[in-house]
Amino acid sequence: MSNKKTFKDIVVKGINPENGNRDAVIDGPDPNKFNTDEKVFEKGRPHVKKRSELPEDQLFARAEYHYQDAERTGYSQYSYWKSVWQNFLKKKSAVVMLIVFVLLFVFTFVAPLISRYDVTALRYDTKNAFIAPNSDYWFGTDSLGADYWCQVWYATRLSILLAISVAGGQILLGTVMGLLWGYVRKLDRPMTELYNLIDNIPTIIYMTLIALMIGKSYLVIGGALIAFGWLGTARNVRNLVFMYRDREYNLASRCLGTSLPRTLWKNIFPYLISVVVLRLALAIPGTIAYETTLAYLGLISVETPSLGILLRNARSLFMSYPYILIFPAAIVSVITITFYLVGNAFSDACDPRNHR
User: How far apart are CA 226 and CA 320, in angstroms?
Assistant: First the structure.
C-alpha cells in the first residue's frame, strides 16, 4: 500500500473559516493548477510550499489570555506550617514526648478532682508526718502531716504555667528587640553596652535585690526573670539578622520604601523561626530549673507550693524519706527531657531547608 498522498488528501494545519476546526483539509487557493490525477505530492517540500500560499488567518490562531488559567497554572499547594507539622510527625520520639507532656499538664487539673484532700484546705497533723505512700495518702505525707499528692500536682501546674509565661515573655521581647538591634544600625552601640552591663553581673544578684526590695511573690519574680532573661535571645537574634540585613531583596525593599515593621516581619523573621522555636523550647525547662534554684535559696515565697519549693524542703530529708524528693524531681526531669526533645524536633521541622 502506497504512503503517497495526492494534493486533495494533504492535511494542512490551520483553521477552517467555515467551522473553526483545526487540521482542516484545504484545497488551496487554486486546485486547478495541479493535476491531481497524474502528479503525486510527497511529504516535505511540496507540502511546505502549499502551506505558504494559504491566507494568514488560516495559518495562525489568536492566543487569548485568561488570568484565571494563568493563576491556576502557577498555584502551589505548599503550606509552610503544614509542611512543618508533617516533618515534626516524622520524629516519633518527639511526638511521644509531646503527648506525655500534654497528658502531664492535663492531669495537673484532673488530679485535684480525684484527690481526697483539697490543697487549699490541707489538714496539718504532726502525728501523720512522713507516712509512706499508701491507699489513703497516694504520695505519702510531708513533715507537717499534709497530703503530698495534692501538693505535688498543684506545684507542677503552677511551675508549668510560670515557666510558659516567663519563657514566652522572654522570647517575645528578645525577638522584637533583637530584630531592631540587628537591623537598625544606630541601636547597635547602646544595645551592646546595655547587654554588657547586665550580662557581666550574675543574674542571681539582681534577683536577690529584687526579692529583698520589692517582694518574693511569683508575679514579681516572673517579671524580673523576663526583664533580665530577654537579652540572651536578643543577642542571638541580632547576630542572625546581620546575615540577612544587607541582602539584595532587603536593599530592594528599602529602595521601594517598605516600612521597617513589614521588612522585619516579612523579609527577615521567617529565617529565624527555627532558632526562636528552639530557644523557646529550651527556655521553659530552664525557667523551671531557675525557679527551683531561687526557691532553694529562699528568694520565692513559700506560701504557694511549687516544684522548686518542694525540692528545697526535701533536700535534707532524702536519705530518710526518699519519696519526698523522688516525686517532684521525677516530674521536673520529665518536663526537661520532654521539652528538649520536642524543641529540637520542632526546630528542625521549622527550618525551610528540611522542607520538600
Answer: 38
DSSP category for residue 105: H
Backbone dihedral angles phi then psi of residue 323, each to the nearest 5 degrees: -65, -25
| pLDDT tens digits for range 160-187 | 998 899 999 999 999 999 999 999 889 9
Q: Which of 211, 118, 215, 103 is nearest to 160 (CA)?
A: 103
CA distance 319 to 334: 22
Contact (Cβ atoms closer than 8 angstroms) between residue 141 and residue 124: no
Using CA atoms, how far apart are residues 97 and 93, in angstroms rounded to an integer? 6
Supply 21's cell numbers. Answer: 476546526
**What domains appear along the chain, each with residue ranges and CATH number?**
1-75 (no CATH), 82-354 (1.10.3720.10)
CA 253 and chain centroid, separation: 25
For the entire predicted model, the pTM comes to 0.71
Sign of CA dihedral 204, 193, 238, 165: positive
Beta bridge partners, 147, equal: 141
In the 8-state DSSP scheme, what is residue 321? -
284-299 tens-digit pLDDT:
888 888 887 888 788 8
Q: Within a 10 A sphere around the Cβ of 32, how many other Cβ atoms?
A: 8
What is d(CA 310, CA 329) in angstroms, rounded to the nearest whole number? 9
User: In the numeric block, which cell numbers belong to residue 142?
Assistant: 510531708
Which of the 8 DSSP states describes residue 75? -
Helix (H) or strand (E) holding 309: helix 307-314
Cβ-contact 221, 300 below 8 angstroms: yes
Return contacts of 213-219, CB within 8 angstroms, 24+ apart: 215/301, 216/299, 216/300, 216/301, 217/301, 218/158, 218/162, 218/300, 218/301, 218/304, 218/306
Give the integer Cα–Cα distance in Å for 346 and 273: 10
d(CA 251, CA 258): 10
